[in-house]
Amino acid sequence: MSEENTIKDGANLSRREFLGTVTAGVAAAGVAAACVPFVSSMNPSSDVLAKATTEIDLSGIAPGEEKTFPWQGKPVFVVHRTPEEIAAMAASKGGKDPEPDAKRVQKPEWLVVIGICTHLGCVPNKTESGWLCPCHGSVYDNSGRIISGPAPRNLDLPPYHFVAENKILIGKA
Amino acid sequence: MSNNKLFGLIFCLMFSAGSAQADEAQLKRGAHVAVEVCNTCHSLKYLKYSDFLKLGFSKAEVDAMRGTKGMADPLISQMAPADELAMFSTVPPDLSLMAKARDGGANYIYAMITGFYTDAKGQTANHVFPGIKMPDVFMIAQADAAGRQGIEQKARDVSAFLEWASDPQAEERKTLGRYVIGYFVFLTVLLYFLKKKIWKRLD
Amino acid sequence: MNKIIAWVDQRFPLTFFIKHELTDYPTPRNLSYWWGFGFLAGFVLVIQIVTGIFLAMHYKPDSNLAFDSVQHIMREVNYGWLIRYLHSTGASAFFAVIYTHMARTLYYGSYRRPRELLWWTGQGLLLLMMATAFMGYLLPWGQMSYWGATVITNLFKATPVYGDQIVTWLRGGFAVDDPTLTRFFSLHYLFPFLIFAAVAIHLVALHTVRSSNPSGINLADKDNIPFHPYFTIKDLFGLGIFMIVYLLIVFFKPDLFIDAANNIPANPMQTPADIVPEWYFLPFYAILRSVPDLAGGVVAMAISVLIFAAMPYLDRSRVTGGARYRPIYRAMFYIFVIDIFVLGYVGAHPPAGTLKMVGEVCTAIYFLTFLLLPFVSRWEEKFVLARGLPPAVEAMARKEIAEAEGNV
């Protein structure tokens, strides 16, 4: 083979390699893009997202009463607290996860917490002084703060705001 | 080169397929007709009031359309099906997919709405759908020329709206489609040249 | 990486398999693009399985919910419309590709000895595909879905003695209803995996007998080239063209293969004005209708699908290369293809007057093609040998004839 031919072959080879690399890159980008709709289809659909917020009418909850509402498929506890309960909670700092009561409520008479034990996700039952988790005996007070038991944290607070005097919208702060 | 012709044809197909869209104003007028007239007796159960936002209506306008119904509620007919059965001896069909469920789509709906006439016996009949149980809601059979024009416009609007309602993703689909086809044309051209290069090795 | 591959290779023939069956697999260099349709079929199968799995995450096989759940996919699931249109268009694409694949096999005589088993596994795949497509078509629970399933399950009435029992058993009720939908869904999910396994068998058979090629003769070693990179790139280019056509339909004409009546929920009390099967069943449907008797029609339709399996025996010519060197066979091939298109047209329209007669004539031509082939092919063999053939083809034909006569 003459020298000239070798050089030509070499140039051809590198051009082919370049074209091959570009084509492979474009194809790989296409495969990656094709995954997007499939992965995306497993995310919540628009009808599920429409349920991301829940409006709750508070007027039917008497002082001292607790009601549970579903929000995004999870239970939310809404407690209409009595003046005695408010006073008791304001005086206490909670247990192993101390937090002032004022930081946990927007209006002192309304406590809104997510009803899922921070230990392993059971739904605690209402007691006189707060909640007791049936699974592993975690005890929460009337501010949803952990007092005793294995749960590491206070009950979580959902984002919510008052849309009217007696109406809250859960899901949006 | 014959390849150029082929790709030219593909591009023509891509762009012509996206044309002939109803404009937004027409769809909005049609939506009003659908909500205020059709929805009295017909459901459009696969549509939600929130879908009107996609049509360019403002939130306040949709609130006015839905009245006491929720934003995420479907457009269920205002008459109860039992009452409708008693009145028309049939339950009027759901309209959400009507433009797809008839050959001719929007044209069929337009022809049906404007197809009412008074027959020899003085009864209202329909050219497109003999034996129809739906009343001539726009009273086109009795309308004079001017009235007829107004009704035809309404019929065009509501037909365009029902076509949109049967396929609300059409715009999104065509936009995405142009990118996807563009990508595959590009990739195929690359593959073509790569193929030529590789097969040259055999010469 | 090399260490891991070496570890695996000691325990499993990974590198050997890839080299032997994929990269270095010797392939005739003269294969045209018509030989790319097998690869395309495999690709469409993967599209159908993947899109199907994602659709099944949102679909509800319940007669009260099925229709609504399809609209849920179309309107509320993220990109649900895309996945559903890929699947519904994919079904048609699958048949288009497979029918082309079969037409190539028939044209070039690729079913001939020693590829009979390869051809028969392909026939099995076609039957599995037809069953899968038929069951899948019920799932949207529209009017066409419902009445299509009703008509086709009723064909089993033609079974002697036990007809009615079999129809009831297939449906799980006295009419197509919820139990039918649920079992069709279950089987529609299962069958693609059977197809996948059958494809593996098809490929083992292919790699045993190797690809046929347009020349019809067995090529010398120097004319076989490694599959990779020559045919990987050739097949990928073909795939690019296929994807452009397929996606143009998906994005711009997605309702092309969806009958208008299937956008009306199933109503067991009312049959739509004209019910037609999907385009890929139309020729067979036309044959069914062209025979006046139910049992006769069913038998004719079944034979019209199964008779392809007999091709290696019906074609008695020893001249290889299929239609290429055989003018009469080539003419028969084209007449047969046109006949199928006409049958398809007849199948899509109500059987009345002239069209009914056209259907009957085309049905007769369909079967006559197969029945005449044994006689025509022998006569044609003498004719083309007398007329002269390329030396390699003639030598092969004479050798086969001599072998056959020696055995007698």
Structure description:
The complex is a heterotrimer of chains A (173), B (203) and C (408). The model of chain A is unreliable at 1-7 (pLDDT under 50). Chain A has 173 residues and is an alpha+beta fold. Chain A is built from three helices and ten strands. Chain A is elongated. With 203 residues, chain B is mainly α. Chain B has one domain: Cytochrome Bc1 Complex, Chain D, domain 2. In chain B, the strands form two sheets. Chain B has a two-stranded antiparallel ribbon with strand order 1-2. In chain B, helix 6 packs antiparallel against helix 7. The longest helix of chain B is centred in the last third of the chain and has 31 residues, at 170-200. The two termini of chain B are 22 Å apart. With 408 residues, chain C is an all-alpha fold. Helix content of chain C is 68%, strand content 1%. In chain C, helix 5 (80-107) crosses helix 10 (227-252). The longest helix of chain C has 35 residues, at 353-387. The radius of gyration of chain C is 24 Å and the shape is globular. The chains are: A alpha+beta (173), B mainly alpha (203), C mainly alpha (408). At the B-C interface, helix 1 and helix 8 of B face helix 4, helix 5 and helix 10 of C.
